[in-house]
Amino acid sequence: MIEVQEIKLDPEERRAWRGDEEIVLSRKEFDLVHALMTQAGRIVSRDDLMREVWHTTFWTSSKTIDVHLGWVRRKLGDDSRQPHLITTIRGQGLRFETEDLRSRQS
């Protein structure tokens, strides 16, 4: 079981929860969250995500990650305008935050 903030991920059962509520993720959504959570606190490049989640070294579409990330953020309750779980580090990649960024903004 992987736990970061209020999100829990069971890689063996391929199940996810936000608190006590189970979240239904597609296969690619689960793989994306798993790739980010296993590297929580570190920036994961888009190239690494394409290799790990989509098993390709070329970009099928520049929006592939963004579209899936949008779906994941909605399901996890992460506001894309003020994210507290997954942040975009411009020009570098994505990071699953180890602590709630909203608590730093107070």
TrEMBL record:
Return the PROSITE patterns for the record.
OMPR_PHOB (PS51755)
One Pfam match, given by its short name, reads: Trans_reg_C
- Entry keywords, A to Z: DNA-binding, Phosphoprotein, Two-component regulatory system
**CDD domains, sorted:** trans_reg_C
Q: Name the InterPro entries on file.
A: OmpR/PhoB-type_DNA-bd, Sig_transdc_resp-reg_C-effctor, WalR-like, WH-like_DNA-bd_sf
In what residue span(s) does the OmpR/PhoB-type domain sit? Answer: 1-98
The protein in question is named OmpR/PhoB-type domain-containing protein
